[in-house]
Write a structure and sequence with these properties.
- Helices cover 31% and strands 21% of the residues.
- The chain is built from 18 helices and 24 strands.
- Helix 2 packs parallel to helix 3, helix 10 packs parallel to helix 11 and helix 11 crosses helix 15.
- The two termini are 30 Å apart.
- Bound molecules: zinc ion.
- The site of zinc ion (ZN) has 4 residues, from loops.
């Protein structure tokens, strides 16, 4: 039974009883003691490991809402506004105009032609968001310039929308007669009035295309290579535990996850959330499926979460908002599932003892979820359920107080403050409501257990960046969105460690550095509590320790 004692420049424990330490003793993958050398040595013989002597240790970071696709999206063409680093460290420059997006697609289409790829092979791109181009919507008129023959699918950054070209519309047989909600048509004044524009909003409309191409974008099946890429990326960001917050958990998905995560070289613990089946019988079958999988849980792979969705995305204008709705007058968004169905199926998963994470972006969706969960809890009380609203971007103080009374947790999308803060101010929410976007301060004041997240690949994985967003609340144009909603650095570090661990029912195992917990550390070159809060995002990550195994970021 070997014991390793690590000496560090500083250990930030996130435990109020002993916030700082210099030494931590690790045995059998767990924390045996934390404090000074004397306290660690009291447990008997040990090896002193000095490799972190000039580093700062904090608990391994926990990403409570991301997707493993962050590791595999790079098989397709990146078309986002912001520069972005791929899993191999290469930086892809952002595209700053619709023309630049079309030019990159045309270039890829030409390369696919030159490589002799069949004309029917689709060109898939991701990360696109027209809101940065002043609200001009993309249509077939843009995409047909990139290719008139090869089907093109460009997934929006929010994962809720896509655009396709005429070749793809034709192959998917989407015409002016299509009645599916979310198939956008040209307005009356347009030469093509009534014809589909190529924009498809939310799953029902996107499915018309995905069923043709065998699933792409956020819905593509996971591969083992993708999981390994994700683990490399996570290590570089100090993350030791992450969710895959929507997974069909089909036989193939389970095989891929179990194969990848049985390998000790894969430096991540994953909690896949089951993509809820809906309907009386299906929800029951779904709940039983998850419970059967839970018997196979290991340290690094934990089943037991269920993901449900109520509405769309704010910047995609598909979120459900309360009065007075969108600042720019756009109509209210889309119910991804009917509220009554949500309540019935939520109750099935809840009664099965599972932990449900619900996507609610707009405040009407959050209110509907809170109403429904309140009724379910009255019929079927369950202490310590930890059901969580995910995103909850427009939740206000009264809704947070209701959440606290119901025992609901919030995992807020703090990265939005940076990535879409100016657009929310100018177009979607307007100046006053933009101040309460991802209202972390109000959540804590109401006593709601709080986590913050990236929703990678919607925005890049990086909890220290997410913490920076919640601490500073600045936008690319230099606005500060809601001084009163700022977190302190220590509160933000809690919201990327113990906070999400609580929403995943893992706070007894991970999230802080304390005797008995897993030896999960984020190894830093700089001290996040000592730097200027505006430099929090620049704190350098050396690597991680996961259940006692050391991984240097590559
Ligand atoms: Zn998500």
């Amino acid at each position: 039974m070997t014991t390793t004692v690590y000496r560090a420049r500083k250990i930030i424990t996130l435990e109020s009883g002993q916030p700082e330490a210099t030494h931590v003793a690790v045995r059998e993958g767990r924390i045996l003691a934390v404090g000074d050398l004397e306290r660690c040595a009291a447990w008997g013989p040990y090896d002193l490991d000095e490799r972190f002597a000039d580093k700062v240790l904090m608990p391994g970071l926990v990403e409570g809402h991301c997707h493993l696709k962050e590791g595999s999206m790079w098989e397709w063409t990146y078309t986002g506004w912001f520069d972005r680093r791929d899993p191999d460290g290469k930086v892809w420059p952002g595209l700053r105009s619709m023309d630049a997006v079309v030019a990159r697609l045309a270039e890829i289409a030409a390369r696919m032609d030159a490589e002799g790829q069949a004309a029917s092979a689709p060109l898939i791109a991701w990360g696109f968001d027209p809101i940065y181009f002043g609200g001009e919507r993309m249509t077939v008129e843009h995409l047909d310039r990139a290719s008139a023959v090869r089907p093109i699918i460009i997934a929006h950054a929010n994962g809720h929308l896509m655009n396709v070209n005429t070749a793809m519309l034709r192959s998917a047989e989407i015409t002016r007669d299509n009645e599916v909600e979310g198939v956008v048509k040209f307005d009356a004044g347009h030469a093509q009035a009534g014809e589909p524009t190529g924009e498809l909003q939310e799953p029902a409309a996107m499915f018309l295309v995905l069923r043709k191409i065998g699933n792409a974008g956020l819905l593509a099946p996971m591969t083992e290579t993708g999981v390994r890429s994700f683990a490399r990326l996570a290590c570089r960001q100090g993350v030791t535990t992450a969710t895959d917050l929507v997974n069909k958990l089909s036989e193939d998905d389970v095989r891929v996850l179990e194969a990848a995560l049985a390998d000790d070289a894969v430096s991540i613990r994953i909690l896949p959330a089951f993509q809820a089946f809906h309907g009386t019988h299906a929800a029951q079958a779904g709940a039983e499926h998850v419970k059967a999988l839970m018997a196979r849980n290991t340290d690094r792979l934990r089943y037991g979460l269920v993901k449900m969705m109520l509405d769309g995305s704010i910047q995609g204008f598909s979120a459900r908002l309360r009065w007075p709705g969108h600042y720019n007058g756009a109509p209210n968004g889309i119910w991804v599932m009917a509220p009554a169905q949500y309540e019935a199926d939520f109750e099935t998963y809840h009664r099965a003892g599972l932990l449900v994470h619900t996507h609610t972006n707009g405040d009407e969706a959050s209110e509907v979820a809170i109403d429904a969960i309140g009724r379910v809890l009255a019929r079927a009380p369950r202490p310590d359920h930890r059901h969580t609203l995910q995103h909850g971007q427009m939740i206000d103080a009264p809704l947070f107080r209701r959440m606290a009374s119901l025992g609901l947790c919030a995992n807020l999308f703090a990265n939005h403050l940076w990535y879409w803060g100016d657009q929310h101010y100018e177009m979607t929410m307007g100046p006053d409501r933009a101040m309460r976007l991802d209202a972390c301060g109000s959540a804590l004041a109401a006593g709601v257990p709080l986590a913050i997240h990236s929703d990678a690949p919607v925005t890049p994985l990086g909890p220290l960046f997410t913490a920076w967003c919640a601490v500073n609340r600045v936008t690319p144009q230099g606005r500060v969105l809601g001084e009163a909603e700022k977190l302190t650095v220590l509160q933000a570090l809690h919201a990327i460690t113990l906070g999400p661990a609580y929403t995943l029912r893992l706070d007894h195992e991970i999230g802080s550095i304390a005797c008995g917990k897993r030896a999960d550390f984020c190894v830093l070159e700089d001290d996040p509590l000592a730097v200027d809060p505006m430099a929090l995002k620049d704190v350098r990550v050396w690597g991680t320790v996961l259940s006692g195994r050391v991984f240097q970021a590559v």
